[in-house]
């Protein structure tokens, strides 16, 4: 018998599978925001991004951007993932 939780997990899995290879935003609990192409994601929400930009705020200079190539984000730090 399927439960509400099983249904929600299925929808989440379908969404995550659908956005692999597409541009995404990943927000961390620390407030950092990463924009890049989603290369892979696992069941622990560990995320691999390519062509990544790191966005962060600095009190003196406002919003800053740092460009990186490939980034691995640990799943325990991920707050949300959204398709761009």
TrEMBL record:
InterPro entries: Lsm6/sSmF, LSM_dom_sf, Sm, Sm_dom_euk/arc. SMART domains: Sm (SM00651). Keywords: Cytoplasm, mRNA processing, mRNA splicing, Nucleus, Ribonucleoprotein, RNA-binding, rRNA processing, Spliceosome, tRNA processing. Its main location: cytoplasm. Gene3D superfamilies: 2.30.30.100. One of its GO terms (biological process) is tRNA processing. Residues 11-84 form the Sm domain. GO terms for molecular function: poly(U) RNA binding; U2 snRNA binding. It is found in: Cytoplasm; Nucleus. SUPFAM superfamilies: Sm-like ribonucleoproteins. One of its GO terms (cellular component) is U4/U6 x U5 tri-snRNP complex. Belongs to the snRNP Sm proteins family. SmF/LSm6 subfamily. This is Sm domain-containing protein. It comes from Huiozyma naganishii (strain ATCC MYA-139 / BCRC 22969 / CBS 8797 / KCTC 17520 / NBRC 10181 / NCYC 3082 / Yp74L-3).
């Amino acid at each position: 018998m399927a439960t509400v939780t099983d249904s929600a997990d299925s929808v989440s899995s379908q969404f995550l599978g659908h956005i692999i290879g597409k541009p995404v935003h990943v927000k961390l609990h620390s407030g950092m925001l990463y924009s890049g192409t989603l290369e892979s994601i696992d069941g622990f929400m560990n995320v691999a991004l390519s062509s990544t930009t790191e966005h962060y705020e600095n009190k003196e200079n406002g919003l800053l951007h740092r460009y990186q190539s490939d980034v691995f984000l640990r799943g325990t730090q991920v707050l949300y993932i959204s398709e761009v």
